[in-house]
UniProtKB/TrEMBL annotation:
PANTHER family: CYSTEINE DESULFURASE (PTHR43586), PYRIDOXAL PHOSPHATE (PLP)-DEPENDENT ASPARTATE AMINOTRANSFERASE SUPERFAMILY (PTHR43586:SF21)
A family per Pfam: Aminotran_5
Key words of the record: Aminotransferase, Transferase
Any one GO molecular-function label of the UniProt entry: transaminase activity
InterPro entries: Aminotrans_V_dom, PyrdxlP-dep_Trfase, PyrdxlP-dep_Trfase_major, PyrdxlP-dep_Trfase_small
Species per Swiss-Prot/TrEMBL record: Cryobacterium gelidum
Protein name: Aminotransferase class V-fold PLP-dependent enzyme
Domain Aminotransferase class V, residue spans: 60-298
Domain of life: Bacteria
Amino acid sequence: MISAPTRTSTVTLADARTRYTAGRGYLAACTLGLPTIATTAAMRADTAAWARGEACASHYGAVVERVRAGYAELVGVTPDRVAIGSQTSVMAGTVAASIPDGAEVVLPIGDFSSMVFPFLAQAHRGVTVRQVELADLAASLTTNTWLVAFSLVQSATGTVADSVAIAAAARATGTFTLCDTTQATGWMPVDAAMFDATICHSYKWLGAPRGVAFFTVSQAFAAYLHPVNAGWYAGDDPWASCYGPAMTLASNARSFDVSPAWPAWVGAEPAIDLFRSLDLAEVRAHSVGLGHALSDGLGLPRLGQAIISWPDAGGRDLARLTTAGLTASGRAGRARVAFHLFNDEDDVALALAALRP
């Protein structure tokens, strides 16, 4: 289990729950997070300012830097180790394009495609992708493995990877680590410093608008990566990098920046501010407790997860949840529900009533 980066929480779970206008029956944070009142207000204000002709590029740039710093604090690294972008696959693609010709990558079977396809796409260079069961990931690393890439929480099943064992095995074999924390950051503590690189798209558990993603990278690993998506925003001084012919990139993680979708970052700022002010161990205990309550009611094992899923190949259980007015999802032939800070025991009761008519 990952421990929380050291910081002082200033917002209680009870207070955080009052900052949402919805949540009852919404069991889909693993698909699309809910915005807080502050996020929707910020985006409305920004749209109004844009309509009045008052939008300002330098203002957006300042917002991005505040969000970068806030996210860095949330996951326990310094801002110079955080690059910004909009999509998981693009960030994973930067790492994939930097893998040496003929090198080996180890992935868990069934991981989300944005953490799989970028590596499979390197086959033309002789890059070998070996996929193993998640539980076997640590034991599968060898001195020939250049990179192990995995999601901290599996999208389809909610399974939490044994990141401590994987990181230890990677150190022992000289393997680099890339961890996707998209399905983890927001409901559980995440320490990005454990890994050579991490990726997080914040539109799920962090409740930010889609299009706000983060890439953390250690200085040592960054030396092996090529900024294949370099554009003006990756420049040492972005406002001096708008035109060629010379390229002077930032000397830190910003060299991997992708130009931000500005309005999305306006909405992300209050979202990130909220979660970096919470005790994420408390959020985890709350979410997992609800997951255990549902598991008990369905006769499923307690697995310490905020995402609960079970076989539902025909979609019958998902249809029951939907018919009852609940928002859930289906993935890989499984029904899937998620419990977050805006859910409570009543949501568990509603789900059980729908599933046990």
